[in-house]
Amino acid sequence: MIFQNTQGDGFIHRVNVLTKIILSLILSVLIVFLHQKESLYIFFAASFIYAGMLKKFKAMFVYYLMILVMFSISLFFSFLMGKIMSGHGAGNNDFSMLVPFLRVSVMSNITMVIAFSTTMDSLINSLKYLRLPSFIYFPLIVIIRFIPSFINDVKHIRESLKVRNISINFLTIIIHPFLSVRLLIVPAVIRALRSSDELSIAADIKGILESADTGRYAAVKPKREDFVVGVTAVLIIAAGLFAERGILS
Amino acid sequence: MIEIKNLSYSYPFSDTKALEDINLEIKKGEAVLITGPSGCGKSTLSRVLNGLIPHYYLGDLEGSVRVNNIDNSERQVCEIAKDAGSLFQDPEQQFFTLKVRSELSLINEIRGDEPDDIKAKVEAVSEKYELDKVLDSSIFTLSEGEKQKTALASLSLSGNSIVVLDEPTANLDYESTEMLASHLADLKKEGKTIIVVDHRLYWLSSFIDTVYIMENGQIAEKGDFSILESDRIVGKYGLRQLSVKKEFGFLEEVSSLEYFGAVSGKSLAVDNLNFKYKKGKSVFHDYSVRIPSGSVCAVVGKNGAGKTTFAKLLTGLLKMKDGEIVLNGKAEKGKELLKKSGVVFQNTDHQLYMKTVFEELTAGRKKTTEEKNKAEMILDELGLTDFKERHPQSLSGGQKQRLVIACSLMKDPDILILDEPTSGLDGKNLSIIKNILKKEARKGRIILIITHDYELIQDTCDYKIEIGDREETT
């Protein structure tokens, strides 16, 4: 029980943490080299379904809302630059605008799965089992651990706003955009900065960087869920690469 | 064991020295108390001891700090932590995993202990700290007291030769505080060195050898525990009391009051309240209570009993499964309750948004002269007028606490609920909060204080509500 891999009992929770990490490492490298819309759409759709299996629909909704806002802002400025600097090649608002968002979303989807379906101790042990250098695994576990902390902070901020009878909705954002941003963003940024420091300190005082224990997960045998996820991942990666190559040729 | 020589330190972008010319020596097996007024440098000193200064907090550091004969500047925080284990003021800051069980097992897992050994240790320590019921809970759903117990349990598993505890009882109930005192006395017998940084003094007399009182970053007084009995010292440094009433027999239980008799119509009545969390057991079952207006009522009970849940239900932040809340003769629900109530949570970071103290009070409100005058008046009443142009995040802990109370008062609430409003405050700030609460009660408000601060309860409260075990309050 102490060494359980997961935080829940769904299909995705039963997948070994090592499988999830290997999958995320392969995808994070692969996604950088993909450019074609077909291949990126395939990986985005697959990772979206993968994250959806967590059934954390509220967190996903908030995340994609943020992505939509950021995408709209970048489109707006791209359009603006296109108007101002017409003839200078600026202001592309075709698929290339979408590429970074698709890449980030694929990465976020697979990171969300690790963050919400894995216990931190099993994650730490697995990363060490992979013998990754500390400058890679240390920031990685802090980032993954940061996600639930940040969500918890946002909950508290929303609660505090409610208590003061301040409601932030679409209308207030339109009427008081600066005040709305301030009320939502300032405490979130302050907490985010503090949380990242606090998590680094917590990891450091617990000696996570130093630990030499890497053997436990060598004994963990793959289960049916790992094979299902592994085979599906291979098929999707093959389809994605085929789409990328197919377009190129 | 610990040797500090000519230590001075100032935080980045600050001209004031947070620590100045500190010299002290703490022997192996010695139990030391570091106390003093808020902002005197106690927590900064504990950060120097565990190496967070200068490894995480930059700034100008002079002098030397040696822990177990090694200078802190020569080794990393994780190496210092093997010798000197720490409990932070906010225990959530030191959690790395998301569940209580994994938080407790992590240290031993990292050390490579055998799974069976770890399991046995986790079970033993969870029983000792009464954490068995929450072992598989998320750390985010724990009460503040349970968080403190989890951090203490984790610290006790790490087996350090030195323990540095910053405000370790700020959120603990009386039984847990006594249990901690006895646990620390045992550790002392085992030869461990104990350093406690605290405002609360009543629980320390049984094991503390040496007391250091700090003021303005310097060690102002040193002696054995008896120096705290001096009225001169208590008065001069605004210290807290040495003894508190252990029982609340002096307070009347609100449930014993006649509904409309004792409270003459103006009151808060909770009838047959039922509530349970989605994945948890029932917290309240057919619970009824009456609270008269114009009074200060302490909400007491063991850690994790459901006190904060009760506050959220009273203000409409949580939806009750069943039951009725009647405020001044009118049944109220959800948003209406929220409009008529003010809540002050423990973590002020989540509650402060604006650029200045004044803007903080008027945020989200109509910019009328009436509202501005009201804000000015509340700032004046709470002694914050001098800070009205300051950034809220630049205020001290006591000032921030008063500011969030001020923000709640802007709503002119019928009910004002405060969750541990005096945790981390010295005797002087405690008195300020006490006076504010009494004054607000006299205006006819219902003041509910969720607290384990016995000094606050005995001097401020008229009534009490005792919330039972987490299992079920009936």
Structure class of chain B: alpha/beta
Number of extended strands of chain A: 0
Biggest interface: chains and residue counts? A-B, 49 and 53 residues
Radius of gyration of chain A: 21 Å
How big a fraction of the residues of chain A is strand? under 5%
Relative helix content of chain A: over 70%
> How many separate helices of chain A?
10
Continuous helix count of chain B: 15
Distance between the termini of chain A: 52 Å
- Count of β-strands of chain B: 20
Which shape of chain A, going by the Cα principal axes? globular
Oligomeric assembly: heterodimer
Which structural category fits the helices and strands of chain A?
mainly alpha
Tell me the overall shape of chain B: globular
Report mean pLDDT of chain A, rounded to a whole number.
79
- Content of β-strand of chain B: 15-25%
Q: Helix-strand pattern of chain A, N to C?
A: HHHHHHHHHH
Low-confidence stretches of chain A: 1-6
Question: Rg of chain B to the nearest angstrom?
Answer: 23 Å
The helical percent of chain B reads 25-40%
Task: Spell out the key features of this protein.
heterodimer, A: 249 residues, mainly alpha, 76% helix, globular, disordered N terminus, B: 474 residues, alpha/beta, six-stranded mixed β-sheet, six-stranded parallel β-sheet, 15 helices, disordered C terminus
Could you please describe the fold and organization of this structure?
The complex is a heterodimer of chains A (249) and B (474). Chain A is mainly α and 249 residues long. Chain A has helices spanning 11-14, 17-33, 37-52, 57-84, 95-117, 120-129, 134-163, 170-175, 177-205, 224-248. Chain A is globular, with a radius of gyration of 21 Å. With 474 residues, chain B is α/β, with parallel strands linked by helices. Helix content of chain B is 32%, strand content 24%. Chain B has 15 helices and 20 strands. Chain B has helices at residues 42-49, 52-55, 77-83, 100-111, 115-128, 144-158, 174-189, 231-237, 307-314, 334-339, 357-362, 369-381, 397-409, 427-442, 454-460, and strands at 2-10, 19-26, 31-35, 60-67, 70-71, 84-87, 162-166, 193-197, 210-215, 218-223, 252-253, 267-276, 282-292, 295-301, 322-327, 330-332, 341-344, 415-419, 446-450, 463-467. In chain B, α4 packs parallel to α6 (144-158). Chains A and B meet through α6, α7 and α9 of A and α3, α4 and α5 of B.
